[in-house]
Amino acid sequence: MRLDPRSAMRILFLMGLIFLTIPACCEAVDPLWTMDFPDAGLHPGIVGRIAISPDNRFLVSSNPDKTELFVVSTNGSLMWSYVPERSAGGWSPWISGITISPDSSRIGISVMVPGCCRGVVTNTTSNRVILFDRQGNLLWNYSTNEPPGTIAISGNGEDTFVGYHTRSLICLDRSGALRWKYKSDSPITDIAVSPDGNYLLATGGNVEGQYTNDAYYLAKDGRLIWKRQVRGINNPGISPDGQDLIVSGYPAQNTFSFSTDGRVRWEHSLFSDIGRVLSLTTNGRYVLAGSEDKIQLLDHHGEQLWNYSVSAPVYSVSLSENGETIAAGTATGIVVFDGSGNLLKEYRLNQTVCPVMVSRDGTSVAALSDRLLFFPVREGKPDRTLSENNVSAGNNTTDLPLMPTTPTLPGFTGVFCITVLMGIVTFMVSGKRKGRT
Length: 437
Known about the structure:
This is WD40 repeat-containing protein. The chain crosses the membrane at residues 409-429. The protein is mostly beta strands. The chain has helices at 5-26, 271-274, 412-436; strands at residues 33-35, 50-52, 58-62, 69-73, 78-82, 94-100, 106-112, 128-133, 138-143, 148-153, 160-164, 168-172, 178-183, 190-193, 199-203, 205-206, 215-219, 224-228, 232-238, 245-250, 254-258, 264-269, 277-282, 287-291, 294-298, 304-309, 314-319, 325-330, 333-338, 343-348, 356-358, 364-368, 372-376, 402-403. Strand 11 (160-164) and strand 12 form a beta hairpin. 44% of the residues are buried.
């Protein structure tokens, strides 16, 4: 069969369109770099921690079982690492919290010794809070005795807040001295601090509702302003202007917005929108949730902005300060969206990614699977001038291999576009054949 010149030109045009559409449709992306690190396997099932510095020049991560800390520049150079000392009884502690000061000059971690079995904690002098400068030099080391579950440095950088599993909250000053201690009704597992450093919103796990209260709003001097019961594994957020206080809990599946005087502005059921929630975060301006097959974004009025169907369970979600970059770690990889819910990039790993972290300015994403991954996702890429040559190493520095990136397969959107265009070409060719017979 011979095609007439016009039909041949059409087919050539469509074939060219296919190849031009591939990058536009799929936006499959390789990480800028990946890093393997040793996983001691001492705490099976524990999920690691990760944070990106506010100046976007380095990130801080634990390995998957939280037994070692790594500080890596955004060009992939290892700056320093730290291994917490074993307890007197020979227990290997894990890193329960990571925080970076707003000026990126200091890094704080909370270290907790596990108890006799999973879910059990214990009081010991090996439980502690440690503060380093960004070069890895020890600034202070505070023995908490009680097991710390979370840590946060205030917006003005003057105070460090630590939440305990044993139902209390403390504040340490810049030198590591105790300012005050507040006895809570529930364990404290997460802390959000207002941008000006004057207030904090602390929450705790209360899945069964056994605790009278599990959300606490305090002044920086430790004075309680109000407390409420939300129920769930709660996530707190304070908006940039400090006026919107949001607490979201799962598996209770409800999100509450509070005024600064404790009044409930609105309540929203996540379960009715997307089913069982697997991951959740809020920055006080937006609420981002992931379920078995969906990702959803709410605004600070509790209104749904969008939801997006995915093919794998969503185990971790993160968003930039302005909500314009959103990332999700799933059972098969990473997906990145803009603030309107448009898919920007996709990276397929075929293994679970948890946690995932978006930088404050939304230009980069870091994630943890069996290795550490780092992606630039928007214009204004991170400063890549930082290297091992101009950063002094701290204690326990280890040479770890940077792994070459692996080519990724096109995502579902890309495959769909390609299939449709190929179908059009096939249809035109078969139509011409039928017309000639």
